[in-house]
Amino acid sequence: MAVPLLLGISVLTFALVHMTPGSPVQAQSAMNPRYSQQSIQALRRLYGLDEPLPLQYWHWLSRLARLDFGVSFRDQQTVLSKVAGALPATLLLNGLSLLLVLGIGIPFGVHAATHPDTRFTRIFTGFTFVSYSFPVFWLALLLQLSLAVWLGVLPVSGYVSPVLDGAPWWRQGLDLLWHAVAPLIATTLGAWAVLSRYVRNSMFEALGQDYIRTARAKGLAERVVFWRHALPNALLPVITVMGLSLPGLISGSVIIETIFAWPGMGRLAWEATTGYDYPVVMGVSFMAALLTVLGNLAADLGLAALDPRIKVG
Amino acid sequence: MPRPRPFWRGATLACGLALAALSLMALLAPWISPDDPNRIDVGMRFAAPGAGQWLGRDALGRDLLSRMIAGARVSLPVGFTAALGMTFVGTLLGAWAAYAGGWIDALIMRTTDVLLAIPALFLILALIVVWGPGLWNVVLVIIVTGWTGMARLVRGEVLSVKERDFVAAARASGAHPARVLFRHVLPNAMAPVYVALTFGVADAILMESGLSFLGLGVQPPTASWGSLLSDGRDAVGEAWWLVVFPGLAIFAVLLLVNHLGEAARRHFDPKGAA
Prior knowledge:
The complex is a heterodimer of chains A (313) and B (274).
Chain A: H1 2-19, H2 37-47, H3 53-65, H4 79-114, H5 119-132, H6 136-150, H7 169-207, H8 210-217, H9 222-259, H10 265-274, H11 278-306
Helix pairs in contact in A: 1-3, 1-11, 4-7, 4-9, 4-11, 5-7, 6-7, 6-9, 7-9, 8-9, 9-10, 9-11, 10-11
Chain B: H1 10-27, H2 29-32, H3 64-100, H4 102-117, H5 120-131, H6 135-162, H7 165-172, H8 177-189, H9 191-213, H10 225-234, H11 240-268
Helix pairs in contact in B: 1-3, 1-11, 3-4, 3-6, 3-9, 4-6, 5-6, 6-8, 6-9, 7-8, 9-10, 9-11, 10-11
């Protein structure tokens, strides 16, 4: 499944490259002042746009396989090294956020499912609905406004404090986490509502199944019914949901990283887009798609490992 | 058989009326706007909310309320147009895939797989760097990346409706396949599409404001709620009102639209309401 998907993505990015200025399809862009003659020449050379189409695609594919996306127009660094430099920041932010989403979302969802018709669940339902409509970039700005500008307890943006150059590693690590607090709140708040709502429905459904009635009927303690029978079955589909929510999470990092000046892939993509740095945009987009496909693959394999009903193959 | 409960009642009616009022406000903008949204008055730079400027003024002394009313003329139509566009494309391709089967079905469905695998915003950035920023490109980009979910939904519905007896009857009586599809199958497969369309409006408004916020949507001096918020970001230390009010407008509209979506879901599918 993953291989044909990656081939499809390579075709799509190839088509995108073909719509860039300088390609035969967009010959009229030669008149467009936005693109210098020089950069058009560079694009033609980079993508080999003068060759026949099948040959071009073959070259494109072999370069993708080597993760060779050419060099940035702006600073002549290779795209791969730029992406590699941005990847850790994105993985750190999204990894921590994923942990928080799971750590907060699952208990809340389970509690709401086992305690319906309580005030907690009513407030919970209302909150998840409201947070679903809350634009993440507004939330991020409100966090900056309240925590950084008004209260002054957190840095407005950035990744590390420059004054700490040469400080011990643990001091720099703490500083990094300190900078991550506001972006983390922003990425987590929307995602956990979606997840916990899903967990609630899944758990609610599991509790109504026949095997739960059987477990109770044979006299198992409610604790055992809950931990051994209901919860594992309710959480299995959550793994799939996590995999499916990966594109959204990575998408969200474009906005979050741009607002908080977090030097990850999202910010790199945005900077490259506003600067018409084609090789970088194409490279980052392909890498984001690659990450997503790998994440989904991991979710599928994890599910297969945990659920004896599913076989790999 | 009990009569179905009317859709427009209670909170749903209130949400619908509020959206209608907002649309009317956008329509009548030139007549109700307290000030010219693009009139620069540097002397009034960052004037706080108060008489004369109910929601304050921005870095160039432009009236925020007037700019937000002008912004509604961008954000609302873009949201509705893009949502309708992706529903139209998705319905057509999804129905075609289900009806034609074979390699057409495979081609359309594998395309949705690929589009769904690429994180939407990265795909959108790649499209914008090719097509350039701007309002109508944003609509186009939202449609290109957004039709996939709708196509899958419609395909599933059409596949199940296609097997029902009344479709077999229509086919047996010699109706043209296109007639069967458009007169018999599609109308009976549309209920979940209306629900998805409503949520699609919310998604499209959110996407437009996000892109305008990133500077890739409307270009200055035109205002959309997203670009106003981006102005607010530049002034986060000086003028809280530039951050609070445009975001509030987006949030409020999303709440209204999402509530309508939930109501539509309950209305069309009373069993599955969660």
